[in-house]
Amino acid sequence: MYRWAYGYLRRLKPVLGRLAEQAVTWHEMLSSAPSITDPPMFENFSGSLLIRYLLCWANYYYLLDRCDRSHETYRGDLPSEANAHSAIQEAWTVVNKAEKLVAVRLAKYRLISEISQGTFQPHYTLLAKIYFLRLRLLLFFPRMVPIDRTYLPTDATVTTNRRDINAIYSGWLYLLEKARLYATCSGDQELYSCYTAYQSCIYIMASLQDQPIRLCPSEPEIPFSASHCLSWAKRLRNHAILSYAKTGRHCYYQIKEKSGISQSLSRRYGIYSIQEIPPIREMRNQDNERPGLQDTLLYIDMELLSI
Q1: Under a CB-based contact definition with an 8 Å cutoff, are residues 192 and 180 in contact?
Q2: What is the mean pLDDT of each run of 10 residues along the chain (307 residues)?
Q3: pTM for the complete prediction?
Q4: How many helices (H) does the chain have, and how many strands (E)?
Q5: Which 3 state secondary structure label does DSSP give 249?
């Protein structure tokens, strides 16, 4: 998958990559010297498109298989001696650049005295995806993500190269909470439901630890016991189901409408083969037995879809 993506990204890089670097340089120069009177100029281009472009590169480095023998061809901006650790750090760096472009995008609206339009769609959707991508990097590669107090305030203030278990769980929950809140502001119910379900899973993982998780930084530190974590996991799980109810109902009715059709609906979409759906029989608690159980029927326990 990342090989196919590399071909498109490589063709876009001479144009979009140059424009993105110009905007990032402008942001970094103004951040380091706010009183500068003659900031560098950069070409005006769609900020949301540049942010999406950088998110594509970040996802690319996140998915890059460093064990692939042909990785030399698909390494992007990584040096020839780069390893998996380098790829994850590059992905984190590119995500940080994407968030800087969000600030540049808002600055453009401020210059034309239309700052209120800067937070229109897709502003919060882009921020939600930025923080969720950071979460995935920290979730699967907690030892490879660099210590970054700027974008991950849960990291220890003392300079260290490794995070303890409390900092890792705190980072996961912090990034997911930010992503979930931004998804709320965007109004995207599917995105919000997805991030809420992820957060519920993190609380379940935290409940399985031998010692209570201490979220940091907090004053005073409040330990999250297993029962406390499970309580939050159940609350977020129910909230995710409620948020996804409308979309889930619509999808289910579409699936049910096509189930049990006699003629073959098998189709091929590229390398994927779509098979027909067997007739659906809805089961409930009162149905203790399934009379006439057949392999040609798809039984669905509707109680599993309720809270």
Answers
A1: yes
A2: 83 94 89 75 89 95 75 72 85 96 91 84 95 96 90 75 84 94 92 95 92 70 84 93 86 80 60 75 66 68 69
A3: 0.84
A4: 8, 6
A5: helix
State the pLDDT at residue 208: 92
Q: What phi, psi does 215 have (nearest 5°)?
A: -70, 130
CA atoms of 20 and 14, how far apart (whole Å)? 10
C-alpha dist (Å) from residue 206 to 144, 166, 209, 221, 253: 21, 10, 6, 16, 36
Q: What is the C-alpha to C-alpha distance for residues 180 and 202, in angstroms, rounded to an integer?
A: 13
Residue 143 token pair: 């030892």
Report strand pairing: 267-269 vs 272-274.
antiparallel
From residue 67, alpha-carbon distances to 34, 78, 143 in Å are 44, 14, 18
Per-residue model confidence (pLDDT) at position 264: 55
Unique residue bearing structure tokens 């409930």: 284
Q: For tokens 């700027």, name the residue.
A: 150
Pair of tokens at residue 192: 């919000």
At residue 81, what is the residue type? E
Token readout for 171 is 């980072």
DSSP 8-state code for residue 277? P
